[in-house]
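Severity: low
Component: inverse-folding endpoint
Summary: output formatting inconsistent between runs
Steps to reproduce: submit the following structure tokens with default settings.
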């Protein structure tokens, strides 16, 4: 089928499975999927992506809670497309550099905390714990659900696991 328009930079696949920052700048989808470059970290890109999500969270947490959740929901839904498209473009399912899912997962985890260093660290550590250890059903979702939703869902659930623990320890007076 002949396309009625010339291909955009978004349409050109990346032959290198590890894109460069220049590749990210040429593709808004990859730029978002790779967390504005944080996913290019050679070691622990998920952790670097989670750290990169904190400054954006500091802006988001200023919003009323209902608007905050609306932005998180839109980011999660957009993340299905963003992560799926990046995965297809790189021809690798859930490339380790795709960290948009970490952004959204952390924003869920930090939804009910005050922007204080101790609270942010606790939320960060809990989210990373659930994202790395992947207790059931996170591990099941990670293995069974494919495409963009599969990339997003395990981090979203890890974020909710973390937020539950945060609410419990806050209500017990430990945070």
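Observed output (run 2 of 3):
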């Amino acid at each position: 089928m002949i396309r009625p328009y010339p291909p955009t930079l978004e349409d050109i696949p990346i032959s290198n499975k590890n894109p460069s920052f220049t590749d990210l700048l040429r593709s808004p989808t990859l730029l978002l999927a790779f967390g504005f470059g944080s996913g290019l970290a050679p070691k622990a890109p998920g952790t670097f992506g989670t750290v990169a999500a904190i400054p954006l969270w500091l802006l988001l947490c200023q919003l009323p809670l209902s608007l905050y959740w609306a932005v998180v929901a839109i980011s999660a839904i957009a993340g299905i497309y963003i992560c799926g498209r990046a995965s297809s473009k790189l021809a690798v399912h859930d490339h380790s550099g795709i960290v948009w899912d970490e952004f959204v997962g952390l924003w869920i985890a930090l939804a009910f905390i005050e922007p204080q260093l101790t609270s942010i660290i606790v939320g960060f550590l809990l989210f990373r714990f659930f994202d790395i250890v992947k207790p059931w059903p996170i591990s099941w979702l990670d293995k069974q659900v494919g495409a963009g939703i599969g990339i997003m869902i395990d981090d979203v659930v890890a974020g909710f696991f973390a937020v539950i623990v945060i609410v419990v320890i806050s209500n017990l007076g430990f945070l």
